[in-house]
């Protein structure tokens, strides 16, 4: 069974990249180097399993600024058909609820609950309701201002474009809010998205969420639903996330990527990428 190993690094880490790559040259059937302005990648196709323990190698390499990713079949050979990405702190470098908490003058209270939820210490649905309650009375215009203040992760749009060039659907699943995620999804060109709906009455937030909360189990359901909708084998799906709320979705995918993620996600995911550029992710399916 073939395996592919992909190494990613910023331009200032070329020396450790070459050193970590050295053992794979003799094992590889084919190899390819990719050079972009903000990152380098080396991709190796091995006829069998690598002789090194990739988990241990990845941990050591990460301390030197190099990410090591192992792709097994069928994604070692086939292109992904569906990418499903978390939004807050993944596609964006900001957390929607924290931006709204700041607008409501309760930033510290909201941020504390957010951190505990993302670390897996609190049930997400319960924590979301508690944080949204802090937004009672916030004008709808402030939600739109927070949407405009969202910081998009470098390379996010390029990732969507690369997915489409590969014939892959790109979808977004968020524990944030539709009023903020919808314009972002349109801007990036995502094929579909889902998020939570803030209740707004007479132009102000009521402090409540409408309908189903997009928690960790809902994220997994949407991954499977989109795979069925787009007729994609779940083994050819890729889930990208950073927090505990993404773990069920990542477990349901053919491959999971912890992107600039919390330790609990790094330990669980199939691959961990610390390079803070989403346009490096397509290097995983660039064929050697």
Characterise the protein shown here.
It is built from twelve helices and eleven strands. It is an alpha/beta fold and 288 residues long. The mean pLDDT is 93. It has a domain at 1-77: ACT domain (Alpha-Beta Plaits), CATH 3.30.70.260. It is 39% helix and 24% strand. The protein is elongated. Helix 11 (247-252) links the parallel strand 9 (237-241) and strand 10 (255-259). It has helices at residues 14-25, 54-62, 87-91, 96-103, 107-118, 124-133, 140-149, 156-165, 178-188, 216-229, 247-252, 263-268, and strands at residues 3-9, 30-35, 40-46, 67-72, 82-85, 169-177, 192-201, 204-210, 237-241, 255-259, 271-273. Its EC number is 3.1.3.3. InterPro entries: HAD-like_SerB (IPR050582), HAD-like_sf (IPR036412), HAD_sf (IPR023214), PSP (IPR004469). Keywords: Amino-acid biosynthesis, Hydrolase, Magnesium, Metal-binding, Serine biosynthesis.
Give short descriptive properties of this protein.
288 residues; alpha/beta; Alpha-Beta Plaits; seven-stranded mixed β-sheet; 12 helices; 24% strand; elongated; magnesium ion binding; serine biosynthesis
Order of helices and strands: EHEEHEEHHHHHHEHEEHEHEHE
Structural class designation = alpha/beta
* DSSP strand count: 11
- What does the radius of gyration come to? 19 Å
* End-to-end distance: 16 Å
Helix content: 25-40%
State the name of the first-level CATH class of the domain at 1-77: Alpha Beta
Strand order of the largest sheet: 8-7-6-5-9-10-11
The name of the CATH topology of the domain at 1-77 is: Alpha-Beta Plaits
**CATH superfamily descriptor of the domain at 1-77:** ACT domain
- Helical element count? 12
Most strands sheet: 7 strands, mixed
Low-confidence runs of at least 5 consecutive residues: none
What best-fitting shape do the alpha-carbon axes yield? Answer: elongated
CATH-level-2 architecture of the domain at 1-77: 2-Layer Sandwich
Q: Which range does the strand content fall in?
A: 15-25%
Mean pLDDT, all residues? 93
């Amino acid at each position: 069974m073939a395996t592919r190993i992909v190494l990613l690094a910023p331009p200032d880490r070329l020396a450790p990249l070459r050193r970590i790559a050295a053992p794979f040259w003799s094992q590889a059937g084919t190899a390819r180097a990719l050079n972009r302005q903000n990152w380098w990648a080396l991709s190796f196709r091995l006829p069998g399993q690598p002789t090194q323990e990739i988990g241990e190698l990845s941990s050591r390499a990460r301390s030197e600024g190099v990410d090591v990713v192992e792709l097994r079949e069928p994604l070692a050979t086939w292109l992904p058909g569906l990418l499903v990405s978390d939004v807050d702190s993944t596609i964006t470098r900001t957390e929607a609820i924290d931006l709204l908490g700041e607008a409501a003058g309760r930033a510290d209270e909201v941020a504390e609950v957010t951190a505990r939820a993302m670390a897996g210490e609190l049930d997400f649905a319960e924590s979301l309701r508690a944080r949204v309650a802090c937004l009672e009375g916030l004008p709808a215009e402030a939600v739109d201002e927070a949407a405009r203040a969202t910081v998009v992760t470098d390379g996010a749009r390029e990732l969507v474009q690369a997915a489409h060039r590969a014939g892959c659907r790109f979808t977004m699943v968020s524990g944030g809010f539709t009023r903020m995620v919808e314009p972002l999804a349109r801007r990036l060109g995502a094929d579909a998205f889902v998020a939570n709906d803030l209740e707004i009455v007479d132009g102000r937030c009521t402090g409540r969420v409408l309908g189903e909360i997009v928690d960790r189990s809902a994220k997994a359901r949407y991954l499977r639903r989109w795979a069925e909708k787009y007729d994609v084998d779940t083994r050819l799906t890729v889930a990208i996330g950073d927090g505990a709320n993404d773990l069920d979705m990542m477990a349901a995918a053919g491959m999971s990527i912890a992107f600039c993620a919390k330790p609990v996600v790094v330990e669980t995911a199939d691959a961990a990428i610390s390079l803070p550029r989403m346009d490096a992710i397509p290097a995983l399916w660039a064929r050697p």
